Amino acid sequence: MADVVTGEAVVVEVRIAQLPSRGVAYLIDWIIQWIILIVMYILLGTASFVTDTAMTAGLMILLTVLVIVGYPVVFETAGRGRSLGKLAMGLRVVSDDGGPERFRQALFRGLAGFLEFWMFFGAPALITSLVNQRGKRLGDVFAGTIVIGERGPRQEPPPEMPPQLAPWASSLELSQLSVDLADTARQYLTRWHQLSPDARHQMGVRIASQVAARVAPPPPPGLPPHTYLAAVLAERRRREEVRLAQVRAAATPYGGPPYPGAPYGGAPPAPQPEPPVASRWEPSGREPSGWEPQPPSNPAGPTPGGFVPPS
């Protein structure tokens, strides 16, 4: 993966094409080019009986250059960065800013490809791709392009909320849970059934302890690590979906209803007075006499095989 900064200063994460997939894509294009060249040579050989020998040789040279250079230029320009080989492998050539490949960039890549692959048998392209962090060959460096993969790995379904933990999970404080730690927990849940029992338990306890150190309140006693992580991630995803729905509802298009569910041109309903709620705090900020904090309820109950979160 790599970050691409667009012209609007937006950072977009893209998947860099791997060297094996690029090699297979080039092999497909190379075979197609040779098929075109062989067909053209046969046709020119047949026409050489009625044409001049020098003209036939000149046409062969011209057609060879057109096929070698013109094939990638035409297909990548018309296919928006995809030749037949890249289309088969799910690859695409884009600009360094994430935009579509232009004709000028495709021409630079085609000319450089003639030197890299047909003159030096791909050695410069291989060396440059291994050295460059983004896997660029010389044609990509000169043209300011990058090859990305459009076919991502199959995404596993997100973890589901255990029904018995839903009331407890709704009271979680998740602001200290980092994105990296959440991704680590998600990867563990994805590979959980593939691990051995010992590795599954040790890795689960380690990740669950790290999550419990940043999430409050602590999990119910005896809760298995994978169940605890599934509840935390499911609650985190639910809150993100709610937040996204609120943002979409607030971004009302021009001429739309002034608030969700209101008719066009209608006035918002009058605010209803809130019912009085007995405060548990005195005006001075001190706790009232006789009040003691109550521990959170444990709807799930103890579960064997759990872990002890950090105090």
- The structural class is mainly alpha
Detail the poorly predicted runs: 262-267, 275-304
Spatial arrangement of strands, main beta sheet: 1-2
Largest sheet: 2 strands, antiparallel
Shape field: elongated
In helices, the fraction of residues equals 40-55%
Distance between the termini: 37 Å
The fraction of residues assigned to DSSP E strands is 5-15%
SSE series: EEHHHEHHHEHHHH
Indicate the radius of gyration in whole angstroms: 31 Å
Instruction: Output mean pLDDT.
Output: 79
DSSP summary, beta strand count:
4
Give the helix tally: 10
List the helices and strands and how they pair.
Blueprint: E1 2-5, E2 11-14, H1 19-47, H2 53-78, H3 84-89, E3 91-95, H4 103-119, H5 123-131, H6 138-143, E4 145-149, H7 166-169, H8 179-190, H9 197-212, H10 225-250
Antiparallel strand pairs: 1-2, 3-4
Describe the protein in words.
The structure is a single chain. This protein is mainly α. 49% of the residues lie in helices and 6% in strands. It has 10 helices and 4 strands; from the N terminus they run ββαααβαααβαααα. The chain has helices at residues 19-47, 53-78, 84-89, 103-119, 123-131, 138-143, 166-169, 179-190, 197-212, 225-250; strands spanning 2-5, 11-14, 91-95, 145-149. The strands form 2 sheets. A two-stranded antiparallel ribbon has the order 1-2. α1 runs antiparallel to α2 (53-78) and α2 (53-78) packs across α4. The longest helix has 29 residues, at 19-47. Mean pLDDT is 79; it is low at 262-267 and 275-304.
